[in-house]
Write the structure tokens for this entry.
Amino acid sequence: MTWTERPLCDLHIHVGASVAPHIMWSIAHEQGLKLPVRNYWEFVELITVDPSRVRTLEDYLRILHEWTEKIQSSPGAIERSVYEIIGKEYRSSRVEQIELRFNPMKRNLRGERDLDHIIHAALRGMDRACMEYGIKGGLIFCLAREFDAEVNGIVLDKAIRYHHRGVVGIDLAGTEKNAIELNDSVGRYAEIFQEARDAGLGTTIHTGEPTATSGEGVIAVVEKLKPDRIGHGIRAAFSQQAMDSLAESGTVLEICPTSNLHTRAVSRIEDFVTILDNFKRGGVQFTINTDGTYLCGTNLRREFRILIDAGALSLEEAERSRALAFEVSFLR
């Protein structure tokens, strides 16, 4: 078996960013949603990244919050979305293990939909796809930085309740401000992350992605929240202290190259040569992931290929990263 035929594991992929536009178009019409476009092609532009108009992480997230999450806000929509993502990732990249993440609270239309129905539907979609394709899947529930402690606590309670059914971890997502504010605010999530660990859930967190943050935020997250993994974390490559903290704790990074390019967290693909070389020299472990396949116009096989072609990864290093994803997966 050649390297390009080996099975892959995607640890960082969002439901809101990974459903094919024609599926989203169909779901929107099934739900009778009024869309601000005249035809399907304008709809594709609406829910995918155009580098000329997406200049920041906030622009990137706005696409998710304004449309994809809204379209997926029903039990039928989330079930179909999860099912379609898993099948597509297996067919396109032979992803045989996948951890899909989403915030169920952002799929219940501010309480108009029952949260448990949303979760059950997502699990049904995952179970069906995993059975049909013979692969392993799990759900990660995202907490939100813009939510208060009570709402995030509800999401955590649901993750714990459905742990036995296929919810494998929690995440913390949302826009970070700057390193100082991040460092000051991290502590308020410590109790939630400890409760998740005590319940047997894996823990990951988005940090160190936007250029406004630095290694200080990564250090604060590692020290105060002690996550198993960190989503993105690329700003740590420019802080020796942050890399030392990651290496000593064994915290694994979930690198998402195309996403980082689209959000301008990384200026050009060649910059990953420096970023990943720093991590390799610093003993920081990392995996390669998609973040959002259709939003970013990519798949997991392509993410590896662009790094290899840019000289950021050798085939041997790509293989180590590929194998590591299976090793550090929350799925057991």
